[in-house]
Batch of 2 targets.
Target 1
Amino acid sequence: MTSAPTLVLDGRFARELPELALPWQAAETPEPRVLALNEPLAAELGLDPGWLRGDGVGLLTGTHLPEGATPVAQAYAGHQFGGYSPRLGDGRALLLGEVVDASGRLRDLHLKGSGRTPFSRGGDGLAAVGPMLREYVVSEAMHALGIPTTRSLAVVATGRPVQRETVLPGAVLARVASSHLRVGTFQYARATDDLDLLRRLADHAIARHHHGAADAEHPHLALFQSVVAAQAALVAEWMLVGFVHGVMNTDNMTISGETIDYGPCAFMDAFDPATVYSSIDTGGRYAFGNQPVVAEWNLARFAEAILPLLADDQDAAVAVAVEALGAFRDLYSAAWSTGMRSKLGLPADVDAAEASSLVTDLVALVQGDHVDHTSFFRSLGAAARGDADPARGMFLDLSGFDAWTARWLALGPDADAMDRTNPVYVPRNHLVEEALAAATDGDLAPLDRLLEAVSAPYDERPGLERYAEPAPDSFGAYTTFCGT
Ligand code: AMP
Ligand code: MG
């Protein structure tokens, strides 16, 4: 049985912030075909997967929407690689509207690859199957890892070819997010010089994400503090799991604290703060180890955008913003240190100074020997149970490893807790490439298998051994491409 839902797509963003919402329609799709469908997520939204695969596919491509829906292209600005672009916006995306999910949460239903809009500039408004499936796999892996992220509902092949370096099959990604408010949304509103718009945007963000701020003595300052805290926590999670976002422009940083816009992203293999995968990040601005500093820089741009809301007098507003932004480093460090303690299974009674020196020495060791980040931390679980050989086998500096391990084991690490913190499976670059190449050629089996592995990342299962292993040397140096 498949049934059409009584789906209500609200237009709250468009209603409250019409200056930032351009009503627009998705392009027709000649031959839609569902390549990936997230059935648990569909259920959360009250959508029947059978219907979505059949008569309902037009919801996933934006071509058949429930009555009353008002799809819009959202306006935003942004600093891209440090340079300001006053008008970016949804050049190949649409917000279809907001849905109340099964637990009463308001969530955006959004499309990527849905055709040209007035924000497209030189672009074709389209997306290819490979990059949309990449976002699907990596965002769902992030979700399964417990990291705040936008979700992927579906990827639908459109039947329309897309011209890139070669001709590729086109696709639309249906994405679900707690909202699509970005730092760049505030930059755009600020640049209009319309203080009322800026205030409405801030109030909309408070209502949707940072409810506590509404009751604060100074709600807009509390909003800023809350976003600083959410981003500090988010970026700490990325660093702990070895995630490189790749394009942390201010238009790709959310107000909600969810990871967004999976473009040239990748999971780091060998531990190295200088790791960069994106072909366009030639200066290493968005290298793995730079991500906390970049997040802080982006938050400074957010502060500038909302300055008029922080105090009437500009100097006073700057002082307030600087002080609030000052919390970022401590919040980030605390989140990262707590996360590292948990990755090492350290009992609560180990004191902070001891944990900190242990972590510092470990980072030097794994960096020195270019140890695979994911498999090393996972292998520490076995080491805590008495089998240090798999971890030891990753090092050249054996005496360094042995000395560190003896110190660590003396603290009584909790192996079971570590196995709940250190994933076995992340979407490794060679596996993602293999799955996307096969899917682009019409074979979805490798994609489904990879999704099976990364959807339960802490649960080691027989038959999935190769999903836990680093890339073979033959895979070579990895590069991801933007402009997807
Ligand atoms: P991104 O790098 O995906 O965050 O995108 C940055 C900006 O470029 C956004 O305004 C996008 O809407 C726009 N953009 C990216 N790809 C395309 C495309 N194929 N056609 C039109 N606009 C695009
Ligand atoms: Mg973007």
Note: Residues 88-93, 119-120, 123-126, 247, 251-252, 261, 263, 482 surround adenosine monophosphate (ligand 1) (CB under 6 Å).
Target 2
Amino acid sequence: MIKFDFNTYTKNYFSELEYLKILEKKSDIISKFNSSNMIGWTRELDQSIIDDIKATAKYVKENFELLVVIGIGGSFLGSYAFDKLFRKYFNDDKFEVIYAGTTLSSEYLDELVNYLKNKNFCLNVISKSGTTMETTITYKVLKDVLKRKYNSEELKKHIIVTTDKEKGSLREEVNTLGYKSFVIPNDIGGRYSFITPAHLLPLSINYDIDDIIKGYFHGKRLIDRAYDYAATRYLLSKHGKVVENYCFCEENMLYFGEWLKQLFAETEGKDGKGIFPTSTLYTRDLHSLGQFIQDGNKILFETYIKIKDNNYYLEYNGKNLNDINNIVIDSVIRAHSEGNVACLEIELDKLTIENITNLIYFFQLSAAFSGYLFEINPFNQPGVEIYKKEVRKSLEN
Ligand code: PA5
């Protein structure tokens, strides 16, 4: 169960009339959304794809020691953030999945190559365009490790490609070399691709993807809440609150914050518009950014994602530690709101696959609605292309 409160600590920042005006746009925005050709992520998956993912996960677990996933941005954050949420902090016993390709750190890659040298591993390279620099370089380096050990027939068994159905160099490689492959559909952009093989395959190694898929589509019922969230943020931004801080109280949620940052930054940040997303871990960051948030420039609002009951029953002075954490967070919300920071709250009764996948759908819907409220295209990312062009020019010289 998820509880939303976008009202208690925001009502001083805009009028009822302003809110009603945004509400009047709702049906128009929903029809714009419904007529977009980039909402393939609202469509149920074919059973044949689900079966193929499950069979491939079984093949990986039965034949290899570990899976190495290569991808960046929308081809990385969804499954990585989800996996972080549900692994144990210590002595985790899940199948080993390593993520690579998210930086050009030669130190990381060199250590990874050394680590993999004597391991029996499978590669899953994920790129919708098939041309992303970080992914291409990492794939080449790790494929070379395999090439040093196997002939081309053997190599084939160690590589799984997830990419566009027709375009890009990865698809060409699949067509010429016969690698196992999955498709990221044309009508789903990277940051909205959680419900595609780009994320479901890496997740299927350790999780029941039927639960993930069911929970994700169950998020559809939250459409009104999603509009409400988009509308509240939009109005706050019109009143100078142009930075949104996602606040977490559990360390394992930090990458969910990274996923949110990518989703909203790439969706809204265009034409000089949008809200800058950032994130904090409380109570840790009360001892650093907390000073600015409480007392600094009043450009911020906060969205808290709280877990009511985390199933751990440690006590301090006769009080449940999780309750203490929640009491502290509620006090922080009151303190920050006294410091002129608008606060929105989302409370999960527990950290479950159902709740998290509901939230993924909810946030994707909100981000898209928000794009239409800001009158920008929610599904492109022209700003990202500009750096890619510059890099290509420099590396070619
Ligand atoms: O959301 C997006 O579209 C981007 O963040 C992409 O996912 C990212 O740039 C990686 O692209 P690709 O999957 O083509 O390698």
Note: The domain at 40-207 is CATH 3.40.50.10490 (Rossmann fold).
